[in-house]
Amino acid sequence: MPLLRLDKLLAGQGQGSRKEVHTLLRGGRVQVDGQTVTDAGQKVDPDRQRVTLDGHALLWRAHLYLMMNKPAGVISASRDPKARTVLDLLPADLCRPGLFPAGRLDKDTEGFLLITDDGAFAHDILAPRRHVEKIYLATLDRPADTADTDAFATGLTLEDGLHCLPARLWLGEGTDAYAAVREGKFHQVRRMFAARGKQVVHLRRIQIGGLALDESLAPGEARELTPAERDRIGLRL
Q: Which residues does the UniProt record annotate as the domain RNA-binding S4 (predicted)?
């Protein structure tokens, strides 16, 4: 990969703003291959050289891919002056410039949210033509039936005339139902059930592509994806 300025590398790894990184360097806290470096403009090859901060190695990653178990009451945005966002929930070691939620979950919807700084990857999994399904578990005010399954499969037209792509629906226990969609229109899953005369009481995204939500993550927690997990997200079901 191309050589990177040391200050850009440190800032990109979430070690602070450019100004804060310069303070770290001036304080002699950064080493490259065992040698203390104070020059912010020094070029390094993160694939070949060992960069440490206070003796701890920094693992270079060109992009970051996070799975979050989004709680209700938090908005899917990078920043908002009036409300708490999903990025506000990230611990310091998972923060870095450029992160954004890849696809939205409504404020009251919970579950699997992908957060990344890789725009091309996000586009690939969100584009309907890629056929990457997002699977939701919905608890309804009354049970769905096979007529609803057929209606989802043919493609619903919502109350405002918006036509949805065909989607999969299968029935769970009681008033639970599972919906798999390839789009991400505003409040889409809730509106699809509303078009069938049913109200969503609780909604949770449980899977993207071939990757299910890690149920060990408490609401608001996040972790990095492994390369294998990242590949599974793009699987067509």
A: 4-65
